[in-house]
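Input.
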Amino acid sequence: MTAHQHGAGTRPRLVAHVVPAGERLPEPGELRRHLARLLPEAAIPTDVVRIDALPRTASGKLDRAALPTPGAADGGPADGRTPRTATERRLAGVWAELLGRPAVGVHEDFFALGGHSLLAVRLAERLRERFGVRVPLARLYGAPTVAAQAAYLDGAGAGSDRVVPLGGTPGAVPLVLAHPLGGTLFGYRELVAELAGEFEVLGLQGDPSSGAAPGELGALAAGYARELAPLLAGRGPVVVAGWSAGGAIAHEVAVRLREAGVPVARLVVIDAEPGRAPGAPAAADGSDGADGGRPGLTVGRLEELRAAVLREGPGALLADAASGRAGAVLATLGVDAAALAELDGPTTATLLAYWRDLLAALGRWRPARFAGEARLVLSLADDPAERERAAAGWRELTGSLTVAYTAGDHFQMLRRPHVGAVADAVRDRTEPRGA
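Output.
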């Protein structure tokens, strides 16, 4: 595989050049789905190019410069299905600009083509400019093809902005995944792939591009539960899960679903800090929330970055990351400084304000008790005393708690191969994996 850049200002795309063993080359989507079972998401190619043989130099080494670029042969969309309506044509043009592709098929997946959470924010901006419609990030995740997004735009934006169908098996046990501090669901893609055959998966998506974060975590969870309750009525017990700050949100949603009469089979908390007991003082910088234990991540530092972006533009993030000032904060959020700096100043400042305010809400969080079964997944990379402290905290907040472990760190645990331990906790297989 090689990285190719298509045009100035575009990010490199990972390209696989394939020599078929027989006459037939599997479809690009089929190949990507196969590789998704073997490779981490970042290593899955966005383009697949068929070649008859690998080009060689005179010395017999691979001649990378001679490998054809994607679309060089015909410039058409990989799935062969060109836009059919005016909306699809306009939308496909926007996609092609952002993804650096000559053309996009109407059924190609935005994320399979190299899209990511911050590029989705840019897509939402571009759609607002071109179509005059504000498209929530939840809709971009739930409708990741040109055809589905065009139908949404033509339908004047029907549907929930916060509850997103993530796939899985219709009619199977419902699994609800709560967004972490970043507000998006993109980090759960490999977990969803692991569980798709056993659950019908719904996601709770924040809207960080709006800049609006709740004053209290309980209010956010109550709103999510109100939208979920009619969708889950009569479905049988549901599993509610969340990673990092999403674990705190999942906890509160599970409490409120039970209060609304929705049976919850279990809560799954994935490497999240427990909230403080009622009456305990909050840290002034918001660092005692479910993500606040991560190095460098405080309300104050996020506000400093936001102010710098408003003064100097998004390029300030690159300078700060290079000097180390912003590096720890953005790394803890799982955000690429270069990708964030590609946004315009107001949008970047809005994202930082959302993260700041949600972190502050986590710092003020005083959890209710979930009187049901819970599973806690912790990282063996963390200090044993920290793991025991987290487990003790969650035992106080749940009816019964089983702890499982994975060798992956806080970010690796949602990636292969470590995501298997998380999937087992969701399935209710409690044997430690990756230990």
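The beta strands are 2-4, 13-18, 47-50, 163-168, 173-178, 199-204, 238-243, 264-270, 370-379, 398-406.
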